[in-house]
């Protein structure tokens, strides 16, 4: 990831355009080295040193039912596309959706599974009461 310090304007404010440009260049280099999938941009655990696709994207070419984190595949012609690229965000909602392939006009159903994860902050330590402090002080004196 580009250094935020290297993307500051002379007045100290962030130059987000420069940051985005450096980040895009870095992603292109990662894609060329096989660190990220050339189709979907997911990280590839065992990079090969050349442009490659992740296992999820390789599965798009298989004939069986598949699941993919951000793409839909037409069961008739095999054309696949990223969800949301066509400004149809309905597929992000949990449930079954009717879809028409933009390549062959085949109509089919896609099932969306949504998962959430929540992170809570560290527990707050309670302050000791005056009584507990006095007990500790009394035990330390003995």
Portion of residues in helices?
10-25%
- Average pLDDT over all residues: 86
How many discrete structural domains?
Answer: 2
Q: Could you give a short account of the major beta sheet?
A: 2 strands, antiparallel
Series of secondary-structure elements, N-terminal to C-terminal: HHEEEEH
Strand coverage percent: 5-15%
Describe the fold and architecture.
With 142 residues, the chain is of the alpha+beta class. It folds into 2 domains: 1-61, no CATH class; 70-114, no CATH class. Helices cover 25% and strands 13% of the residues. The protein has 3 helices and 4 strands, in the order ααββββα. It has helices at 16-33, 55-59, 130-141; strands at 71-73, 80-82, 95-100, 107-112. Strands 1-2 form a two-stranded antiparallel sheet. It has a two-stranded antiparallel ribbon with strand order 3-4. Strand 1 and strand 2 form a beta hairpin. The longest helix has 18 residues, at 16-33. The chain is extended. The relative contact order is 0.08.
List the helices and strands and how they pair.
Elements: H1 16-33, H2 55-59, E1 71-73, E2 80-82, E3 95-100, E4 107-112, H3 130-141
Antiparallel strand pairs: 1-2, 3-4
List keywords for this structure.
142 residues; alpha+beta; 2 domains; two-stranded antiparallel sheet; 3 helices; 4 strands; extended
Summarize the structure.
This protein has 142 residues and is of the alpha+beta class. The chain is built from three helices and four strands; from the N terminus they run ααββββα. The strands form two sheets. Strands 1-2 form a two-stranded antiparallel ribbon. A two-stranded antiparallel ribbon has the order 3-4.
